[in-house]
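user: Here is a favour to ask of a fellow structure person. I have my own habits and do not want them to colour yours. Could you put it straight underneath, so I can go through it closely?

assistant:
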Amino acid sequence: MTNQADTCWTLVFSAWLVAAMATLGALFMSEIMGFAPCVLCWWQRIFMFPLVLVLALGLFPFDPKVLRYALPLATMGLLVAGFHVLLTMGIVPETLAPCRDGVPCKTLQIEWFGFVTIPLLSFFAFLVLNLLLVTAHLKTSQ
């Protein structure tokens, strides 16, 4: 492997770690802590959970084409998570929320340090994923 390929592998591996930690965190909060996910949380899971498998399959052996499958999932997840954060902050009106039955999307089940919520954790996980994957894409394009 060249130095550039090593760097790309490290970036994709780091993205896999973020996706794995986010997936385990989501499962812990719902299955162990008993927090029921809202509709927007489910959509974020739909985009996050497959990344664990997709990124792992692209690592052994390393295939830079994994980025073309992972980036759309991470980008869509970032958009949904961003919408969810704006909704919980009151910037997006609650009438636009897709949560009609079950847990309201605006419900904050945790609030650490007065501002860290589950939607914000998801947003930052998707943001870091996107930064890592875009950086890896730029490195492979050189």
Notes: The longest helix spans residues 3-32. The chain has four helices and no strands. The CA atoms of residues 38 and 104 lie 6 Å apart. The mean pLDDT is 87.
